[in-house]
Design goal:
Pathway: Bacterial outer membrane biogenesis; lipopolysaccharide biosynthesis; Glycolipid biosynthesis; KDO(2)-lipid A biosynthesis; KDO(2)-lipid A from CMP-3-deoxy-D-manno-octulosonate and lipid IV(A): step 3/4
Keywords: Acyltransferase, Cell inner membrane, Cell membrane, Lipopolysaccharide biosynthesis, Membrane, Transferase, Transmembrane, Transmembrane helix
Enzyme class: transferase
Main location: membrane
Number of strands: 9
Structural class: alpha/beta
Organism: Pseudomonas benzopyrenica
Radius of gyration: 20 Å
Helix content: 40-55%
Oligomer: single chain
């Protein structure tokens, strides 16, 4: 995709409310990092009470994935998750607008040698990540140290799309944004020995998925990781990130490449990935994106697991 460019049309009055909101967000994230962490607690309380539909989805996911917790424990976890989601909004703005040096001070990166080894060998890398609330800032921090490409879905609002892409790509001056459906472009960059951020942990429907257990529930799991690794002749490097509890920043870990991947079957690969998802999410449940309807696609004949959307 071509790099974004500013257009005079963005000065049209219909964009003024968005400009105002972005301006206020820019001002807000000039505060010290510790203050932003505390501010996210208050914003999370507001989001918890206002975003009723997302709260219902997240609560249902926690019921499905952590049935061993009682209702009070799940509610505490849910409230912490909303605070984490509020911090994600601030982290998005930090990654777009903070000076690079200020941002870099928050990074604690481990395992960079695995990316560098693949680059030396001329092999592409699928940087297999998860939809944690820290995904935006995690990609920015890693992008300062190593070029990574990313799957991208164009935003409906062209001004927001311009701001978002400009903010993301400033950390990766030679990075490529690949349309999520453009498989040919994905394989091309993998075969060129580049690294691509890719997360296989969401429900994209039954067409390109297999039903394998996730937290004991049959979940539509994409087989694309296997296909991309095989056709792109790429290594799969799990990538995890966390917001550190002591307020010192973010721990990013690039794990060693998966051995014997692809495996004997797509189903075995999907099961292996879902078990990895379970382990990572169970370690940091408050920082995971629970507001996604992960189990919306059901096997034939099985009942829906979420209430109908309110109109």
């Amino acid at each position: 995709m071509e790099r974004p460019s500013f257009r005079l049309a963005f000065l049209n009055p219909r964009y003024w409310p968005l400009w105002l909101g972005l301006g206020l967000l820019w001002l807000l994230v000039q505060l010290p990092y510790g203050v932003l962490l505390r501010l996210a607690q208050g914003l999370g309380w507001i989001f918890y009470h206002v975003a009723r539909q997302r709260r219902a989805i997240a609560r249902r996911n926690l019921e499905l994935c952590f049935p061993q917790l009682d209702e009070r424990a799940r509610d505490r976890l849910l409230r912490r998750n909303f605070a984490s989601s509020a911090m994600a909004l601030l982290e998005m703005a930090m990654s777009w607008w903070w000076p690079r040096r200020r941002l870099a001070r928050l990074a604690h990166i481990e395992g960079l040698e695995h990316l560098q080894a693949a680059q030396r060998d001329g092999q592409g890398v699928i940087l297999m990540a998860l939809h944690f609330t820290t995904l935006e800032i995690g990609a920015a921090l890693l992008g300062q140290r190593h070029t990574i490409d990313g799957m991208y879905r164009q935003h409906k609002n062209p001004l927001f799309d311009f701001i978002q892409r400009s903010g993301r790509e400033r950390h990766n001056l030679d990075a490529t944004a690949i349309e999520r459906e453009d498989v040919r472009a994905m394989l091309k960059v993998l075969r060129a020995g580049r690294a691509i951020w890719y997360a296989p942990d969401q429900d994209y429907g039954a067409k390109q998925s297999l039903f394998v257990p996730l937290f004991g529930i049959p979940a539509a799991t994409v087989t694309a990781t296997t296909k991309f690794a095989r056709l792109g002749r790429a290594r799969v490097l799990p990538f995890t990130q966390e917001r550190l509890a002591d307020g010192s920043g973010y721990r990013l870990v690039i794990h060693p490449p998966l051995a014997d991947f692809p495996g004997e079957s797509e189903e075995a690969d999907c099961l292996r990935i879902n078990r990895w998802v379970e382990r990572c999410v169970s370690q940091l449940p408050e920082q995971y994106l629970w507001a996604h309807r992960r189990f919306k696609t059901r096997p034939p004949g099985e009942p829906k697991l979420y209430p109908k959307k309110r109109r």
